[in-house]
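[Meeting: bench + compute handoff]

Bench side (C.D.) handed over the final construct sequence. Compute side (W.E.) agreed to return the predicted structure before the next meeting so the bench team could plan truncations. Sequence as handed over:
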Amino acid sequence: MNDSRYWFPAKRYGWGWGLPITWQGWVVLALYFVLLALGTWLLPPHANPHHFGIFLAVISGLLLWVCKLKGEPPAWRWGK
């Protein structure tokens, strides 16, 4: 489904979302990777594994929250 109100389409097989289909979705995904790189630099995983794990959980949770808000409704799909 390529509905313009969705930033993230549902995957063809399985559960979840695929790559973004709008520029807003690409910005969200790019921001996630920038924050991941910045967090790896500021909170090295080998030096602060607990802090890095919490940081990773927070930014990943935010990404999933945006995908849930702006993506197609998640459901198990078997292809077309």
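W.E. noted at the follow-up: The chain has two helices and two strands. C.D. will use this when planning the next construct.
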